[in-house]
Amino acid sequence: MKPIDLTQGSIFRSLWVMAVPLISASFVQMAYSMTDMLWLGHLGSDAVAAAGAAGFFVWMCNALSFMTKIGVEITVSQSIGAKDYRRAAQYAGHAVTLASIIAVGYVCFLLAAAPALIGLFRFEEHIAEQAVDYLRIVAPGLFFQFNNNTFNGLYNGQGDSRTPFRISAVGLVVNIVLDPLLIYGVGPFPMWGTAGAAVATAFAQVVVYCIFARRVFTSRFPLGRLAFLSPLKRELSCRILGLGLPVSMQNGLFSMFSLTLATLAARWGAVGVAAQSIGSQIEAISWMTAAGFSTALASFTGQNYGARQFERIRQGYRLTLGIAGGIGLVAGGLFFVLNREIFGLFVTEPEAVVAGGDYLKILALSQVFMVTESVTAGAFNGTGRTVPPALTGILLTGARIPLAYWLTTFPALGLTGIWWSITLSSILKGTVLPAWFLWFQRRKLR
Questions:
Q1: Does 2 map to a domain?
Q2: N or C: which end of the chain has fewer CB within 10 A?
Q3: pLDDT tens, position by position, 324-375
Q4: Farthest-apart Cα atoms in the chain, separation
Q5: Residue pair 26/334 in contact by the 8 Å Cβ criterion
Q6: How far apart are alpha carbons 329 and 324 in whole angstroms?
Q7: What is the pTM of this model?
Q8: 3-state class (DSSP) for residue 218
């Protein structure tokens, strides 16, 4: 089996064939967290808040993994576009080694610092204990999750998004089956509550890793068999990390900004944290879809950039922007009209439903802009210019913090001031970044 060539044939078909599995895989990833929240929601806001707090550090793991995931997507796709398959294989081997090294370091940090990290939320003692237990149980599984994200990047860069989707779907099934058994103690299984959700998630990631390993570390891998640990060369390692670092920093800081907003929301008790935790999972319906199109466009752009087919890149960007924008518009409409009904599927407490409904209604106004920003970031990344989307994201997402603190001082806004800060910054990002890419197309893609 050879890498898929995205430099020829129908642009719509190339993007669609890539995007559909990626969107599905994004929903699979989202479903891991939503499955936990769905089952834990019936235990009350305390359990949701505990898992939600620990979930921010799982989010940070995903952010760190972008160093190798994005780096290998770009380097492999551009190498394949230039028909340099040997170089693509070298980049792939380096990314796998770098991912394992970074993942081990992060897991050790979480295990040692879990109480201090959860202490940032200033929960009541019984909630804090649940959150620390959840984080320490899920932490070893993050080694596998980090590497799984990198494996996804290996395949995406080759134009193959179906294989990662199929493998990730197996992990979701494992998680869905184990969650109720371990949370509620069905049959011979112990009742572990929030800890059970952590065990189920970690075990599912181990299963996914094992399936990936059977392909990547054997001759079945399209670029040739990779080694678990390869000797690192400075040039290749710096190229991978240099491309992935801006995206990783953006996502890592995004996680920290969200953590700061969550601590602010915690002033309104567990209801405030639960509203943001569950609300962000629901909102992921649109931004995970956008992420799928963004990754598809990045791989498409990378191969065509390597092949120097710039007009094909322009056409692909316009087409992707139109499709994803339409989806963002539909999602925003649903959130605006059915906000409380949707949120009520996850919790039953009236106060939490009201707070969560407000979250979705306000965030509905920015869905089209959020999708536009994500798609444009994919186009930039494919060309190897990862700084513009990262810089835009860091500056304008960071602006949410002072804006949220200011807006929450108004009695008429209160908790909703946090949600308005998120929406306003998303509208700005979805305006600035496309304008920047339009300038880039006219000046650089010639």
A1: no
A2: C
A3: 888 889 988 888 888 778 877 777 777 778 877 888 889 889 999 999 999 9
A4: 65
A5: no
A6: 9
A7: 0.81
A8: coil
